[in-house]
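A sample follows:
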Amino acid sequence: MKVLVINCGSSSVKAAVLDSETGERYAELRVERLGTRECVARDGTEQHSIPEYDHGRALAEFLPKLAKVGPLAVGHRVVHGGECFSTPVQIDDLVEDQLEALSPLAPLHNPANLAGIRAARQCLPDIPHIAVFDTAFHSTLPRRAQYYALPQELSDKHGLRRYGFHGTSHSWVAERAAQFLGDELARLRVITCHLGNGASVCAVEYGRSVETSMGMTPVEGLVMGTRSGDIDPGILIELMRKEGLSVDELDVLLNKNSGLAGLSGVGRDMRDIEERAAQGDDKCRMAIAVSAHRLRKYIGAYAAVMGGVDAIVFTAGIGENSVAMRHRAAGRLSFLGAHLDEEANRNAKVSRSNPVAEISAPHSRVRLLFIATDDAHSISSSTAALLGRDAIAK
């Protein structure tokens, strides 16, 4: 089934028409730096300057060309489904309203997701639109992993619990790992590490998410590109008192000015940080060290949560491309029975056509892999599955 997948980030749009079974791409669109003078769209082999465009305007201009390929449905990535949505859902006006109400839980993402939905529904009103949620895979979290240690009345009143994110990626690479290992996911304990500008770890026990590092919002957990990850709440109180920060200013600090960017002082791109670190920049060295330490701590914790681990998987931009981060994360896990093959780690590559690389030594009991994630293929598969066999047969 041909599915148009739309993934709207805070300042970007990624869209592709692809086969929901094979993942073959028929057409692709990428828009970056939305809302700035440098905004550009890459449509196939062509690049277009579209200064100051927003999500709606960019999609209104370029979706008609993608529509000519003939998609039978549109799958939309939506970051936060809250308590309302634990499975993919067909979008109507009521669902749009519910998604808008969830926007405060993921302020960098859900408003952009919703802008993409509205633009696409207006452009393509005659085919079904499906929302696929980052949080859905984590709906299996046990209550002990969902709850914060807050008064239960407050938690119930405001929906304060851990939801988790990057679900489409975690579920996708866990399945690919099981296939590579020649086993069923329902028989394996897998730790998946999605390491990109946003980053999270997930404990996948026998096919179900049982722990994950992001919480009620995508701020909790690992050090990320611009997000702080775990932080003592007392620090936030001190900053509000001593720096006079408002709630909105604190939000900007934690979401946009912290993480790798805040630690390194040179931005959020790990490639730049690693280059500067190699030249002796101490702040960049510290950014890498703190990030790797936090990641390794979560891996160890999740092995304990599951009572062991069969495979550890790295994915997304940093996980797939940073030899140094994989080395730092996996190089001290021998106590788990995980032994890194340094040569394989340096030389292995992944792609859509060859998505899995093994970097564990021959004697390693725990398999170490890195896998090319494919959110678009995952979303298209979920979209087709919801619409059913009759739609796929068309």
In short: Confidence is low (pLDDT under 50) at residues 389-394. The CA atoms of residues 42 and 283 lie 34 Å apart.
